[in-house]
Amino acid sequence: MSDYYRPEDLDRFPEVGKDKPELFNKFMEWYMSALAPGKLGKREKALIALGVAHAVQCPYCIDAYTKACLEEGMTMEHITEAVHVASAIRGGASLIHGIQARNCADKLSM
After folding, report:
1. 10 Å Cβ neighbour count for 47?
2. pLDDT at 61 over 60
């Protein structure tokens, strides 16, 4: 198998709700509400979603929100900057957990 994630599976997302449609419908209602324009517009929310998609490493979301960003008139410069922001936050989150290791080591060496 060359690809674990298949781009065509993104179009199959509604199948996730096949066996429990009431829960899927509630998720979709919340999801659509969260992404609807409010104080932040569609453009900003697409860019946030793209950054989060990279942080959680979801290839389906990366594809979907790259497309959304391009449709909102963004360029690869916008996308690349968002990916760097997400990476910096994720990297910082990993680094700060080094304090947890230090606290554990300090406690064990008492």
Report:
1. 21
2. yes
Question: Among 8, 60, 67, 59, which Cα is nearest to 42's?
Answer: 67
CA distances from 54 to 20, 71, 80 (A): 28, 18, 11
Across 70-95, average pLDDT: 96
pTM to 2 decimals? 0.83
Which residue's structure tokens are 């199959």?
Answer: 12
Number of other residues whose CB lies within 10 A of the CB of residue 103: 10
Angstrom distance (rounded) from CA 101 to CA 103: 5
Mean pLDDT of 14-32: 97
CB half-sphere exposure, 94, CA atoms < 13 A: 6
Distances (CA, A) of 18 to 14, 25, 31, 65: 7, 10, 17, 24
Pairwise CA distance, residues 83 & 53, whole Å: 9
